[in-house]
Amino acid sequence: MEYTDVTNTPFEIEGLLDNNTALVLDYDGNKRVAKKLNLTTGALTPAYSDETKSISGVATDPFTNVPIALFYEGLTPQRRWLDPDLARLQNALNRAFPNKHVYLTSWSRDKKQIVVGVESGSHQYQNYLFDTTSMQAQLLTELEPSFEGFAFPTKELLKFNARDGLEIPVFVTKPIGEGTRRLPTIVMPHGGPESSDDAGFDYVAQFLATRGYLVIQPQFRGSTGNGIDFSNAGYGEWGGKMQNDVSDSLKWAIEQGWADSSRVCIVGASYGGYAALAGATMTPELYACAISFAGVSDLALMQISRENRSGKSSGSVSYWREHMGLTRFETAKIHAISPAHLAQNVRAPILLMHGRDDTVVLINQSQVMANALRRAGKTFEFIELDGEDHHLSKQETRERYLVEMERFLAPILRPGQ
Description:
By secondary structure, the protein is an alpha/beta fold. The protein has a domain at about 155-300 and about 340-415: Rossmann fold. The protein has 10 helices and 19 strands. The strands form 4 sheets. The protein has an 8-stranded mixed sheet with strand order 12-13-15-14-16-17-18-19, sandwiched between helices. The chain has a 4-stranded antiparallel sheet with strand order 1-2-3-4, with no helix packed on it. Strands 8-9-10-11 form a 4-stranded antiparallel sheet, with helices on one face. A hairpin with a 2-residue loop joins strand 2 (about 20-30) and strand 3 (about 30-40). The longest helix is centred in the C-terminal third of the chain and has 19 residues, at about 395-415. It is globular, with a radius of gyration of 23 Å.
């Protein structure tokens, strides 16, 4: 039996609003919008006239299966409650927790008991049980109780213009109490690359900022959260415009008077690890060091690994070929954007870390990079993490990741000086 994906459906039905009306998601150009479908006449009408961003998802009530919320694409939480009671509650909780992101995550059938998540860029995620009768909140969980009372730096969402004029969002976290002097800086591109950082608490960025580093997290073209056109702009730009955006974020931070150009390290995981290694090999003049966790170093090898796992005609292989803009058979071109083939350009120390049990980016990517650096006579360290996967799922290896980063960075970037 064969199955094929259906790709020509005109819209997606999300659920019933009443006995004769369905909520559907449809496209208005490249924007995903909500529409109402009349089940008798088949007429489609816009559900809302004020939608400016693409819808990323729909939530349904677990007890009735009725759509109750729309979630919009963005780097900060944006939602529209279709249930008026939950909309009023959201507004009340936003006032109760100012300058924080408040999420209604689950509730009782009568909506008298609500589980609420609260966080911000400088406040770790906490769960509360909120009673809508007494209007009182009881703390349920706290991921790191030892952080109670600890002041974390503020995480700001700003924008800069890349060299071709495209506006790029960027998260900036500055150490507390450092004044206006230029700071040792970490440029930290995210993984994906079709992903993004968000306005929530980032334990790596906060750890580095509390150690005295300015942390720059560019949402380079190709990232999600800024529209479909912006996300699609990353296709074919590995080592190209996506990497330029990362470099331009540093140049912008230097122009703002925040970053010390002589004390900069590029740090990343997964695609961010690729970007870190690309920075060290393609623009070595910018960085005093680089750290890659589970980073891709050889794009042809990655395609081969995907083919071996999923088959040469699989959707996964097709996606990566399309996103990279090259096949593994275009040897010269794919080597030109593969850090393992550019190791001779490296000028600064590199720290490689990789989980032995990583099934997303196989450890051979870091092994190949280590061998290339060794042959080129470059300074590097390679730490293989036993029993760890692609996502740093174990608490002890997350801690080791931070400890090894701090050990590696401190003598090179000299925070506090």
